[in-house]
Write the structure tokens for this entry.
Amino acid sequence: MNKRTKQILNNILGRIPLHFVIIILCIVWVVPTLGLLVSSFRPPQDINETGWWTVFSLKNKNSLPEYDTYCASCHGENGNAIPEANLTDPEFLSQYPQSIRVLQTFDNVYNGQIHVPVANRPDRNQISKIMSFLQEQASPENRPTFWLRNYIDVLAGYRGRLDYVTDCEAGNLLPGQRTCNFWKDVTIAQSSMGMAFVNTLIVSIPSVLLPILFAAFAAFAFSWLDFKGRQTLFALLVGLQIVPLQIALIPIFKLYVRMDMIGTFLGVWLFHTGFGLPYAIYLMRNFLGSLPQEIFESAYLDGANAWTAFIKLALPLAIPAFGALGIFQFLWVWNDLLVALVFLSGSKPVMTYQISNMVTSLGAGWHLLTAAAFVSFIVPMLIFFFMQRYFVRGLLAGAIKG
Amino acid sequence: MANQTRKQKKNPQNVPTIMRQGTITPWLFIFPALAFIGVYILYPLVNIFILSLRNNDSSQWATIACQTGQSCWGIFENYRYALTSDVMLMTFRNNILWLLIMVPGGTAIGLLIAVLVDKVKYEAIAKALIFMPMVISFVGASVIWGFVYDYPVNPDNPNSPVIGLLNAIVKAAGGNPVPWLQIPPLNNLALIIVGIWLYTGFSMTILSASIKSVPAELLEAARIDGANEWQVFFRIMLPLIMPTVTVVITTITIFTLKLFDLIYVMTGGNYQTNVIANRMYMEMYVNYETGRSAAIAVILLFLIIPLLIYNIRRFQQQEAIR
């Protein structure tokens, strides 16, 4: 080994602790969320009986060594290789209520072959074990490892004895007004996450557009128009960015009670606009202020006034800043609990409100909680995967927000 | 030098001519924003202070709540409750605990990750994984970690299945399951870990950007002069990124002071885990004590004011350099 290879080898070995630490940290960060995702697809009985990590274990819970030894070669690993003797069909299995009946078939000849040659016949004990295993597998009680029913239940806001699909199919009496028409139930159920998703969307969109619009106006004035007290007013805005929104809850609540605006979307839109503005103006002003002065000079020379300079010049140029700001404000509103809790609460429940209610009420098990949480993650995750850099840009621009 | 620049800024000669577009126009541009901020931030700032001096339903001055033979702060009676009652002292203790662990923890781990991933090729992926919790809600995070901390229904039955990851690890190591969220002061630590998990992505992102702006030649020169990696980090890198570290520290401090969702969902403030913001919510919407709730809000505001002033100062310094 020459000196150079030794050095390279040393380098690689020396970096192992580095990789180790990074990978451990990444695992610690991801595993809690992974557990939630996996559990949201597991049937409730499984969630409560085994840890979610057991789904990754190599040992297949749907297997029996005796079956593999005596039957699998012909009937297949899953028992359905021979259509005329489908071992997963409960009706077929019901022909053999006792193991002696199975024993009697061993001498039968199928397709010119003895069913089970004498040399490798299971004893009665083994047969009964295989039969009870097969019956358990074929019974409707047997659940798949993963299913989507947790999601169906939370979207329809269903908390019955079994799950929504099973109870509807069986015609079981459903608590409350249920039509078993999924889309109809989504809209009428009190605890439906489907409706909460829509409400969250209704809350979020104007709460993003309004502050951006007004911030663009103000930021233009702060960066390209001169007026008395411009610097002082802006410094004040910088300070207001971190005023905790908690101080506004009671005063605005009282105001809304007087104006009959409790439980209205309008009230929440306006509240988010008010508290979103200082940061939005700050970010927009930093962006607009960094545009070159010459473009405005030439616009004015061409006879533009402040208004046209804003509409035709500043607004189109500010689109990248809108992206960063919009995503930042959107996630803020989408994930908010406190404002929705105080001003909307149960009248127009958003997703964070529904989930927090599910946590505190005893009715909802982990299968519903995990699925509900993931329903609320869908949009933020899409943003995370496709628009992360805008969000990071918004963060780096100085994200300190009330 | 800075003074001089500031003076020049005030000099109207220094403002470009194009910015003079009449006296009314600028106000038309800022009016909508000012109106919103006036109603939703400035009005509450004044109103909350008045409400904090009123009684539980804001109908009379807080003095009415005083009882003979007991100490009384007169019109500031709500503040006596907010600053001296046992529940509130416990709440303050918890917030201090949060500040003491969360702020250095969130900053240091973020810095550690930022420095480490800077040296590897899969930096982007590693950073994305750490950053992911930033986009989800605190309510969602509460569900995620509530599941990690899950405690068996029948803890006395050794066959009772353990489905919480942390207790499964404890059990595999031969221990007994622990009710993480119910034993103080362990539960506070368990909650703070969730906070760190959420906010490390933030500090990492900001600090990572800052580390990349440190000129590589500077670090290389130090290495050539015989400095080891620790010295390079503590003597050169850290002083250079210190302004950013301060930003991260102030931001996490503000977040920690205002923390609400996590406590509201995970423990509801029970088992001695309450924090200021949740206490404030409970006084208003559970106990219907408007005056006390307002007083707590004012205290929260006062805790944040030093950071607010610091923020304005920092901004003015930046403007002077511009």
